[in-house]
């Protein structure tokens, strides 16, 4: 495609966009953001598109909305001019090469944000001990911590966040402010400037969402136009634009959590710690939050490390890079998700059926059944490695067993709970 063709293309797209903005400014503001992200080389133009979208949503009257609409139309022209003066004047192949190079330059490095060796904490009154935690939290990675309640997950989180002092082992923050790791120990004042902790029990906040987000950014040194830009960025990313004027009591559980995440993220921490974020959410809200966390960890603009705990094992496994499994204060598994089950000696399957256990045992003897137990919800069946899930299902169906639920958990952390 020649330079002339490229310029003609953007002019045509811009003309159609202006018509769309005039016809439906609210929808047009969303289209404007896509246009800016596609064609604008100057990041300030992309940020302006985001701010205008928010301003139109908040405009109190027709006159103010018309003013924002005119600004959106002007911005379209600015983006076209920016494109012509930049990559639009170069061959398309060169533009693609530059875009790929920018992506590689921006790709998050897997630098270690936090590391611990033999980390532990003892509670003398209860006798509970967390011990032997070897942990490395890296930029761009999600580490999931799982285990039954009372096994040390929250204790570990509070140690990493600096809310508890450890009494065994060592810990350090090699990527955070270097002066924070001193001979006298960790300077928690400096470290906490780069750690965000979202506890399971979210504290109530006062005032509107927007006021709280602007305040949170301000106390971390983000002021003026930067404050508006960063608040706008995280609001758009977490889908909070329609809720900015609401107070805490007006939010659902899912949006309270999103708001808590927005407060934690608006000042760009390097480490995000989230304790049981899925506990009080419905299935749809869980999926949205998990997707948000995965996208945030992968972010090119501000990559971070995410430490998350949850009882929802399959959901956490779907987004996590690494899993730490705690049982009675001890580490039972610590590694990459794909390493789970590599050293197993059996395959493990979950089966939901109304078939009686003795009858089921009889059928499964043909496959050299190793063990069968009922979890209260489903049967957990353990068979030799050579028995695949397909063979197991084929046998059950051939015997007329009605299968209501089936899952292969051979490579899931869930098998360690049985």
Describe this protein's structure:
- With 418 residues, the chain is an alpha/beta fold.
- It folds into three domains: 3-106, no CATH class; 112-339, P-loop containing nucleotide triphosphate hydrolases (Rossmann fold), CATH 3.40.50.300; 346-417, YebC, transcriptional regulation domain (Alpha-Beta Plaits, 2-Layer Sandwich), CATH 3.30.70.
- The protein is built from 14 helices and 15 strands.
- The strands form four sheets. The chain has a six-stranded mixed beta sheet with strand order 7-8-9-3-10-11, with helices on both faces.
- The chain is globular, with a radius of gyration of 26 Å.
- The model is unreliable at 87-100 and 102-108 (pLDDT under 50).
Q: Which structural traits does this protein have?
A:
418 residues; alpha/beta; Rossmann fold; Alpha-Beta Plaits; 6-stranded mixed beta sheet; 14 helices; 15 strands; nucleotide-binding
What does the secondary structure layout of this molecule look like, with pairings?
Blueprint: H1 3-23, H2 25-39, H3 43-58, H4 62-85, H5 92-106, E1 112-122, E2 129-138, E3 142-146, H6 153-161, E4 168-172, E5 181-182, E6 185-186, H7 188-191, E7 195-198, H8 209-219, H9 224-237, H10 253-265, E8 271-275, H11 283-298, E9 305-309, H12 313-319, E10 322-327, E11 330-336, E12 346-352, H13 357-364, E13 371-374, E14 379-384, H14 389-398, E15 405-408
Parallel strand pairs: 3-9, 3-10, 7-8, 8-9
Antiparallel strand pairs: 1-2, 1-4, 5-6, 10-11, 12-14, 12-15, 13-14
Helix pairs in contact: 1-2, 1-4, 2-3, 2-4, 3-4, 3-9, 8-9, 8-10
